[in-house]
Design a protein that fits this description.
Helix 6 packs across helix 9 (344-357), helix 10 (385-394) packs antiparallel against helix 12 (439-448) and helix 21 (671-681) runs antiparallel to helix 22. The strands form 6 sheets. A 7-stranded mixed beta sheet has the order 10-21-11-18-16-17-13, sandwiched between helices. A 4-stranded mixed beta sheet has the order 2-9-8-7, covered by helices on one side. Strands 3-4-6-5 form a 4-stranded antiparallel beta sheet, covered by helices on one side. The chain contains 22 helices and 23 strands. The radius of gyration is 31 Å and the shape is globular. The relative contact order is 0.19. The chain is of the alpha+beta class and 754 residues long. Residues 1-31 form the signal peptide. Residues 459-502, 508-527 have a biased composition (Basic and acidic residues). InterPro entries: SBP_5 (IPR039424), SBP_5_dom (IPR000914). It comes from [Kitasatospora] papulosa.
């Protein structure tokens, strides 16, 4: 499923001019701040990978795996590294502590015999003992020189190395060789709880030993690797990255001969699967539905099971499937049989596609990431934490999660933490620090912040109509009795005061934006009677007209009920810019966005929805702060103390006047949250560290800059003959175990065919 997301560790040094409303956050409730154990309701959704023992997986064959694009770099520590970089390097380079199915780091015996903290005082010391068989593809053993070179490159002390993340490496004081290069002693200047996150992936010293090789040498090639596969070629024009089985691999031999990562845009995944270009691809719900329909009609309605991929698809079955896919029901599908001559060509094409797709299964789980509503606290109404909390308490998170996950048959429990997901150690629902959904309480918070119904029609400036306003302009002050009488008349008539200029401007702007294709939700126009804002026509002004048919000059037309219900303050409406991606793979985000708009509209908050191209959505809007509301995703991590801090840290001013936001694109933070992260990352007792993180999470909830909505679905189309691959969930793939349960035809690994 395609979602706009952002990989951790990217753009750590991006600067953006921004303002942040500082001060102590009000914490209404600090639920989840105790040292309780894991949430008993926290259950991870299992991975779906068609597991099979290695003896059931055939030796040989080529697997084609879809990626969005050939990565710009194979150096995972550079700013433009992406998901494809991670996927490819996972098969090529050492990962010392990969995540298991519960999202917890586990020692990898292919590279380590052991690794543990052997001293805590006066300084933390970790001793790594490397697997004696572990070697790079050139035959050199993996050892201390590789650790030293990577530390020096990532420590942040040498600006010649273009690094995107240095967390943890800057805490290392020294690295020493033990009795040989297979023993590595790492001494820390400050305690570091997440030491297992370091040296994964581990690059050879040939890459990390100098700025030139680090910055440019590993962008398009890796001559020295140490995984079950080695790199054969990177071909950007063809959109392929080809890996071959590593003959020097000392662990379980890879079952595949070759692994080809093939660039296929998300919108073309269905065609690529049907054409046999790829065997594995992340897909969206529409493609998953096509595969499900193919499976449903594989043997024809009521017919016998097929004996091969799509073998039993009859023209009638294909026609029924085609009609269903285009929005018809069973009865309509049967009726459509009469028109088969007119649709023969379309049905034939669809039948061929169905036949091909019937050879695939949809593996599904939940990704180790969550989608959030981000509220930009840089300036404007959302700089007030009362407004942010009001919006958060208006959302029905369960409804939003149901809309995305229930149609896919996946659990739809909204996440209760920003720093862990259900099933991970230490997960605790901390959303009680914000409070349950309560629209009345939300309205009270907004009123406390000064945003009231009809507030957009009132201004702090004098808005009285007629002669009294003229008197004031002339410096005359009306008598108290006259003023009270006038006010009494105004209240009875409901028409006193000039029409608010700002409300009128808003109306004009709204009209202009509609004409330009932008849509402002909730700002309904007044009736057509008003032609100039006054409601007075030439006929009304004729002498002898019906008494009371026209109002005194300057009297405003009554506001429609829809406008009266809009929230405003000092003549300004509470209207927020909601930025959403427009690409075909982002339909789920737009569906969620529409529901959020309706929820906010129900309490009087107007929303201007702007849809932008996917490729500019994050860089030009989220990272730069050009939004009020937005939806995007963060991946989960086994190291929240390290990886969570830059996401939720309080932005700091830079020497050039800009604001260093790291990855905190909501610009909402506090000193207290930073202090809790700092204490957690330095706490070597795992339980104590998790308790500090729970406290930090409670305060992040209370700040209401980020509202987790649902864990992202993971849908993967996989050839039914493949084993040990699919929706991995938290766990890292074991590339050496992936393969076909039946031998595939031999052929060039990069030709797109099996």
């Amino acid at each position: 499923m395609s979602h706009v997301g952002v990989p951790r560790g990217t753009a750590r040094k991006r600067r953006s001019v921004a303002l942040l409303a500082t001060g102590v956050l009000t914490i209404p409730v600090l639920a989840g701040c105790t040292s309780d154990g894991e949430d008993p309701t926290s259950v991870a959704v299992p991975q779906d990978i068609a597991p099979a023992s290695r003896d059931r997986v055939a030796d040989g064959s080529t697997l084609n795996w879809a990626i969005d694009a050939v990565p710009s770099t194979l150096n995972a520590f550079q700013a433009d590294a992406d998901g494809a970089t991670t996927r490819i390097t996972g098969a090529l380079l050492p990962s010392l502590f990969p995540m298991d199915a519960k999202g917890e780091p586990r020692l990898n015996p292919d590279y380590l015999e052991s690794a543990k903290v052997i001293e805590r005082e006066p300084k933390q010391v970790v001793l790594y003992k490397l697997n004696q068989q572990a070697v790079w593809s050139d035959g050199r053993e993996i050892g201390a020189p590789d650790f030293v070179a990577q530390w020096r490159a990532l420590s942040g002390k040498d600006s010649a190395f273009w690094t995107a993340r240095n967390a943890g490496y800057e805490r290392i004081e020294k690295i020493e060789r033990g009795k040989d290069d297979l023993q590595v002693w790492v001494t820390f200047s400050k305690p570091y709880a997440d030491w297992r996150s370091l040296f994964s992936p581990l690059y050879p010293k040939e890459v990390t030993g100098s700025p030139g090789t680090f910055n440019d040498g590993a962008r398009t090639t890796l001559r020295n690797t140490a995984g079950p596969f080695r790199l054969r070629s990177v071909n950007k024009p063809k959109g392929t990255v080809v890996l071959d089985r590593n003959p020097r691999w000392w662990g379980d031999e890879a079952r595949l001969d070759s692994l080809v990562f093939r660039a296929v845009e998300p919108g073309r995944r269905t065609d690529a699967l049907a054409e046999g270009t790829v065997d594995v691809a992340d897909i969206d719900p529409a493609t998953a539905n096509s595969i499900a329909l193919a499976a449903r009609y594989r043997g024809g309605k009521g017919g016998p099971p097929a004996h091969g991929p799509g073998a039993g698809i009859t023209p009638a079955a294909a026609l029924r499937s085609w009609a269903l896919a285009h929005g018809s029901d069973e009865e309509a599908a049967e009726t459509a049989r009469a028109a088969r001559e007119e649709t023969r060509e379309a049905v034939a094409v669809y039948a061929a596609e169905q036949k091909s797709l019937s050879g695939f299964a949809v593996r599904k789980s939940l990704e180790p990431s969550y989608t959030q509503l981000a509220l930009n606290g840089e300036s404007g109404p959302l700089s007030d934490d009362r407004v942010r909390r009001a919006i958060a308490r208006t959302l029905d998170r369960q409804e939003l999660a149901d809309a995305v996950l229930k149609p896919l048959g996946l659990p739809a429990k909204p996440p209760g933490s920003h720093l862990a997901l259900a099933g991970q150690p230490g997960y605790k629902d901390g959303s009680g620090a914000l409070g349950e959904r309560d629209t009345k309480e939300a309205q009270a918070l907004l009123a406390d912040a000064g945003w009231t119904p009809g507030g957009a029609l009132r201004s702090t400036r004098d808005t009285k109509a007629g002669s009294e306003a003229e008197k004031k302009d002339e410096g005359e002050k009306p008598a108290a009795g006259e003023k009270a009488a006038d006010e009494d008349k105004d209240e009875k008539a409901g028409k006193a005061g000039k029409k608010d200029e700002k409300a009128e401007d808003t109306e004009k702007d709204d009209k202009a934006s509609r004409e330009e294709g932008e849509y402002t939700v909730g700002d309904d126009k007044p009736g057509s009677r008003s032609s100039g804002g006054s409601g007075v026509t030439a006929q009304d002004k004729q002498p002898g007209g019906v008494a009371g048919a026209y109002a005194p000059v300057g009297t405003a037309a009554p506001a429609p009920a829809a406008v009266k219900s809009r929230l405003g303050k000092d003549g300004k409406p509470l209207s927020l810019r909601f930025v959403l991606p427009s690409g075909p793979g982002s339909q789920s985000l737009r569906t969620v966005g529409e529901k959020i708009v309706a929820m906010l509209d129900s309490i009087g908050i107007s929303t201007q929805v702007t849809k932008v191209a996917d490729d500019s959505y994050f860089k030009d809007h989220i990272a730069s702060g050009d939004y009020d509301l937005a939806l995007y995703s963060w991946p989960a991590t086994a190291y929240p103390a390290t990886d969570g801090r830059p996401i939720f840290a309080k932005p700091e001013p830079a020497t050039d006047g800009s604001l260093l936001v790291a990855q905190n694109y909501t610009r909402v933070g506090s000193d207290h949250i930073d202090q809790l992260f700092d204490r957690a990352v330095a706490e070597l007792d795992a339980d104590a560290s998790r308790d500090l993180l729970k406290q930090a999470d409670a305060r992040i909830w209370a700040a209401a800059g980020s509202i987790p909505l649902y864990q992202r679905p993971q849908l993967v189309a996989v050839d039914k003959k493949l084993a040990n691959i699919g929706a991995f969930g938290f766990a890292a793939p074991r590339y050496q175990d992936i393969g076909f349960t039946a031998r595939q035809a031999a052929g060039p690994p990069a030709n797109g065919k099996k």
